[in-house]
């Protein structure tokens, strides 16, 4: 199948397919008649795997390592389990940081609700941001 067909079946863009091909995550053969890249069922399987692994938070580099282990005949499952066990607390920390950030944003909006808009006067850029610390 051609790039467009693989992308459609795999529910990604053609540029995503080309990107994964450039990275070596999926492979294509060249059609000798027209030079088009042709993908097989293995490419579709790998494309679906990449999408699933990405949804679990694995980076393309980690996915490449998973493929390398699998391609060499070793089970990548222990590595996958270890990686995900590390990702869970990292993700929880990111969520906590985002929640704290959201609180700051909401506080700023509440504080700015009654503040007038200012015009730059050579001494300030945006009074909302510059005065925000003083409104807390």
What's the order of the H and E elements? HHEEHHHH
CATH class of the largest domain reads Mainly Alpha
Number of helices, counting only DSSP H or I runs of 4 residues or more: 6
The tally of domains stands at 2
Rg over C-alpha atoms, rounded to the nearest angstrom? 24 Å
Helix content: 55-70%
Q: How much is the average pLDDT? A: 93
- The portion of residues forming beta strands comes to under 5%
What's the total count of β strands? 2
Gross morphology is: elongated
Q: Strands of the biggest beta sheet: in what spatial order? A: 1-2
Keywords: DNA-binding, Transcription, Transcription regulation
Pfam family, one: MerR_1
Domain HTH merR-type: 1-69
GO molecular function: DNA binding; DNA-binding transcription factor activity
Description:
The chain is mainly alpha-helical and 136 residues long. The chain has two domains: 1-74, Multidrug-efflux Transporter Regulator, Chain: A, Domain 2 (Orthogonal Bundle); 92-135, no CATH class. It is 66% helix and 3% strand. It contains six helices and two strands, in the order H-H-E-E-H-H-H-H. Strands 1-2 form a two-stranded antiparallel ribbon. Helix 1 (3-10) crosses helix 2 (14-23). The radius of gyration is 24 Å and the shape is elongated. The model has no long low-confidence stretch (mean pLDDT 93).
């Amino acid at each position: 199948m051609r790039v467009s067909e693989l992308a459609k079946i795999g529910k990604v863009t053609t540029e995503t397919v080309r990107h994964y091909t450039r990275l070596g995550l999926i492979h294509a053969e060249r059609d000798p008649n027209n030079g088009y890249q042709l993908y097989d069922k293995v490419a579709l399987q790998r494309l679906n795997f990449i999408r699933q692994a990405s949804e679990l938070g694995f980076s393309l580099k980690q996915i490449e390592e998973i493929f390398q282990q699998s391609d060499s005949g070793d089970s990548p499952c222990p590595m996958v389990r270890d990686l995900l066990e590390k990702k869970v607390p990292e993700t929880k920390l990111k969520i906590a940081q985002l929640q704290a950030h959201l609180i700051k944003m909401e506080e700023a909006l509440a504080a700015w609700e009654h503040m007038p808009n200012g015009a730059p006067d050579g001494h300030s850029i945006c009074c909302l941001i510059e005065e925000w610390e003083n409104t807390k």
